[in-house]
Amino acid sequence: MNTEFFIANRISREKDTQDRFSANIIGIVIFGIALGLAVMIIAISIVTGFKKEIRNKVIGFGSHIQILNYDSNLSFETRPVSSTPPFLEDIRNLPDVRHIQVFGLKAGIVKTENDIQGLVLKGVDKDYDWSFFERSLTDGRTFTVSDSVLSNEVVISSYLAKKLKLKVGDSFQMWFIQEVPRFRKFTISGIYETSLQEFDKTYALVDLKHVQRLSDWESNQVSGLELIINDFRKLQKVTDQVDELVATTFFPDGSRVKVVNIKEKNSQIFDWLNLQDMNVMIIIILMLTVAGFNMISGLLILILDRTNMIGILKALGYKNINIRRIFLFQSAYIILKGLFWGNLLGIVICLLQQKLEIIKLDPVSYYLTTVPVNLDPLNIIALNAGTIFMIMLSLLLPSMLITRISPAEAIRFN
Asked: Half-sphere exposure (CA, 13 Å, Cβ side) for 273?
């Protein structure tokens, strides 16, 4: 067994012979490391959870990537594109593309007996991925789209349902202001809630054929195509790949298409989410700084507490570097003990919030009803490794105090 490790292990386990003052200080050091790590785990879990939840909600409304008519602007009245463009199969063959679906948009006005509200219909086809809205449903169900039968059912948000005083099973009329004004009557099949108020108060989902008929489009014309990918981290890579496939395509009428990903379409939301990373970095730096200073104080007390032992070891011929290793090994033991309790505390608090949803949020301000938690093992491992590295690095300088201790004076030290 390594001699320095053996001595450090014996020192760490000699609880009965430790000075009470130094033992208390070491306890404070362990508590400081544990508290700092717990705070870092909670902070990064909440921020990554918050970003993930908001990101998934935004993607739920508009997918990862959209292919639109090149002449389309920010208006909801877009020029149509073909639902079966020549590059469709090439996009399907991209390994990172999981699903492709078509959609159509049409703006109108909902009129009930007492209320009027602007609304955008998002028409969906039978290939639409309902998973996001099925998770967000608070009442009712989604509707089925078929090739032969036109469905008059609609899924609206709880925001609109409350404002218009509607519930599942109720019907309402929607008017469309165009050259020849038209109206449609819809029956509510389901009500969803995402807490993203800007989206909730804007969109309702209907059969795509309604949008096509109201816009006088052909059966193969849509507002655009939506692409759902496997890994959000590859968003820009897949966007560039799709852009290369469609950039040179011209349709018979001379029109082209453009590729827009969710970050570009909702840049303000994603820029705001990226600002949260700065908050996490500040917390991590502060906690590591506090833990480092705590450990430096603890090491200095350990050295002073064992001055006699240092003098004896030097008198026996031990080199300074070997004695330094003894105290670094002992410091590592203290750090690992602090990390154990820190991991336990941080993970337990995160799990309690994840399962019991103890801390609530105002959905108007935060777009969520409870504090989200994302316990990523890789983040926890990285925090532990970073904490060990930074604290041990900070201990190298104070451990050099051992080189300045004289054997003769140390043996007489009391």
From this structure: 20
Structural domains in the chain (count): 2
- Amino acid occupying residue 26: I
Same domain, 102 and 235: yes
Q: Are residues 84 and 148 in the same domain?
A: yes
| Exposure string over 188-214, b if 16+ CB within 10 A, otherwise e | bbbbbbbbbeebbbbbbbbbbbbbbbb
The single residue listed with the structure tokens 């201990």 is 395
Mean pLDDT, residues 352-367 taken together: 88
Domain annotation covers residue 63: no
**Integer Cα distance of 74 and 379 in angstroms:** 38
pLDDT band at 321 (very low <50, low <70, confident <90, very high): confident
The set of residues, in sequence order, having a beta carbon less than 8 Å from that of 245 and lying 6+ positions away, is 87, 90, 91
Instruction: Look up the domain containing 35 and give its range.
Output: 3-57+269-412
Predicted pLDDT of residue 408? 60
Distance CA 413, CA 358 (A): 54
- Give the pLDDT confidence of 175-203 residue by residue, as tens digits: 988 777 888 999 999 999 998 888 999 99
User: What is the pLDDT, as a whole number, of residue 252?
Assistant: 67
Separation in Å, CA 297 to CA 19, 69, 301, 303: 16, 65, 6, 10
Residue 27: predicted pLDDT: 82
| Domain finish residue from 213, 229, 255 | 255
* 288 phi/psi in degrees, rounded to 5: -65, -35
Both tokens of 12, joined, read 């760490």
Cα–Cα distance measured from residue 226 to residue 203, given in angstroms and rounded to the nearest whole number: 16
130 and 48: one domain?
no
* 129 and 206 co-located in one domain: yes
3-state SS assignment for residue 234? helix
Q: Is 254 left (phi over 0), alpha (psi -120 to 50) or beta?
A: left
pTM summary value: 0.81
Element spanning 259, H or E: strand 257-261
What's the pLDDT at 98?
94
Do residue 90 and residue 226 come from a single domain? yes
Q: Same domain for 232 and 282? A: no
Residue percentage of the chain with pLDDT more than 90:
45
Which of 190, 225, 255 represents a domain boundary (last residue)? 255
- Do residue 368 and residue 319 come from a single domain? yes
Same domain, 220 and 175: yes
Has residue 66 been placed in a domain?
Answer: no
